[in-house]
Amino acid sequence: MAGEPQADCLFCKIVSGDVPATIVRESETTVAFRDINPQAPTHILVIPKAHYPDAASLAAAEPTIAADILREAGEVATEEKIEGTGFRIVFNTGTGAGQTVFHAHAHVLGGRGLQWPPG
Ligand code: AMP
Ligand code: ZN
User: Fold this and answer.
1) Is 43 a catalytic residue?
2) What is the spatial distance between Cα 21 and Cα 46, in angstroms, rounded to a whole number?
3) What single string gives the DSSP state of each residue in 76-113?
4) Ligand 1: which atom is nearest the Cα of residue 101?
5) CATH assignment of 10-105, given 3.30.830.10, 3.30.428.10, 3.50.50.60, 3.40.50.720?
6) 101 Cα to the center of ligand 1, angstroms
7) What's the gap between Cα 59 and its chain centre?
């Protein structure tokens, strides 16, 4: 069923605690943890506890949880003190855009200059 945990999903295992992560925030519907391969001084992933393969499918099925992700991304930026210098919220969607984990997640990146357009 849509949103149910998937046995073969890495981020569902982080939600359940079966795979360890450095968790920085948690809400009723979301978890935020440090990316294992950071691309900036601050690089945190915000994910829904429910399993959806990407941000668009999450937003279509559970718009309030999609909004929770954005709110938590902002809270992370405040906690990490990167909101003043600017930060980026990225949802890679599809293999062609670099998505490697097919459980929706926002990358929150900051703490260095961020080029535009991104690569
Ligand atoms: P994406 O390529 O947009 O799907 O992002 C997946 C992200 O998950 C990458 O930035 C990885 O570095 C990160 N990642 C993979 N495994 C883990 C893990 N066990 N804990 C934290 N982050 C991870
Ligand atoms: Zn999952």
Assistant:
1) no
2) 12
3) HHHHTT-TTT-EEEE---SGGGT--S-S--EEEEESS-
4) 4
5) 3.30.428.10
6) 7
7) 14
Q: What is the pLDDT of residue 119?
A: 82
Q: Whose CA is nearest to atom 1 of ligand 1?
A: 99
**Which ligand minimizes its atom distance to the CA of 92?**
1
Give the distance (Å) from ligand 2 centre to CA of residue 104.
8
pLDDT tens string 60-79: 999 999 999 999 999 999 99
State yes or no: pLDDT of 1 exceeds 80: no
Q: How confident is the model over 83-108, as pLDDT tens digits?
A: 999 999 999 999 999 999 999 999 99
Task: Give the single-character DSSP code of 114.
Answer: -
| Number of residues in the chain | 119
Catalytic residue (one of 51, 103, 105, 107):
105
Enter the pTM of the model.
0.98
